[in-house]
Amino acid sequence: MSRRPRTDGGDGHLPDGVEPRTFDGDQRLATRGEPVYGEPVQDGWRAWDPGRSKLGALLGRGVETGFTGDDTVLYLGAASGTTVSHVADFAGPTYAVEFAPRPARDLVRVAESRPNLFPLLKDARRPETYAHVVESGVDVLFQDVATRGQGDVACRNRQFLADDGWLVATIKARSEDVTGPTEVTFGHVVETIEAEYEVVTTERMDPLHEDHLAVVARPR
């Protein structure tokens, strides 16, 4: 799959459709779409809360994530739709996998105003259960699953990613090891991911997201 170049000018790390906007005197990132979680809205732009969204926090820090706008996205761990709603505001087809039925019901409501958002009540650890639905060659695989084996989840879902695609995985240390040193835990997860990906960068997400590490990688 060939990807179009960025056209966003000055903010090179931001996808098309994500812009800094001013809300009540403060500049915040924003996307255009129906509000979901009580976020401020101005002229159709909804503020993106970096405290509730790890992707929002990464973009706010200027981390290159690979999103360009109009991307095809596989989102693992969509929960009730806080972050994936922003993704669907600027991306193309967005497949949102969520395991728990309760947040998945909220996710379905979020999708009602976003025809490009496809909720899937599935387990990200078992990609064979949604392989018949998700198209191959997606541009970005975003992962935010709070479970043991987060590195394995990234590797199992490599099959959906285009060869020139991007993995953005946010790793929660306490889901892997409740008591162990976080740096050791992160090292083990990154080592697992490196079986299928070449790591581009890692970013600790404290203090907004304590004991989380973001891993940005490309397929090998």
Helix content: 10-25%
Our count of helices gives 6
The outline comes out as globular
Measured by DSSP, the beta-strand proportion falls in 25-35%
Give the termini separation: 16 Å
Overall structural class, as computed from helix and strand content, comes to alpha/beta
Order of helices and strands: EEEEHEHEHEEHEHHEE
Keywords:
globular; alpha/beta; 23% helix; 6 helices; seven-stranded mixed beta sheet
What would a concise description of this structure say?
23% of the residues lie in helices and 30% in strands. With 220 residues, the protein is of the alpha/beta class.
What does this structure look like?
The chain is 23% helix and 30% strand. It has six helices and eleven strands. It has helices at residues 54-60, 82-90, 101-111, 150-156, 173-176, 182-193; strands spanning 19-23, 26-32, 41-42, 45-47, 73-76, 94-98, 117-121, 138-143, 161-172, 197-204, 212-219. The two termini are 16 Å apart.
Write the layout of secondary structure elements.
Elements: E1 19-23, E2 26-32, E3 41-42, E4 45-47, H1 54-60, E5 73-76, H2 82-90, E6 94-98, H3 101-111, E7 117-121, E8 138-143, H4 150-156, E9 161-172, H5 173-176, H6 182-193, E10 197-204, E11 212-219
Parallel strand pairs: 5-6, 5-8, 6-7, 8-9
Antiparallel strand pairs: 1-2, 2-4, 3-4, 9-11, 10-11
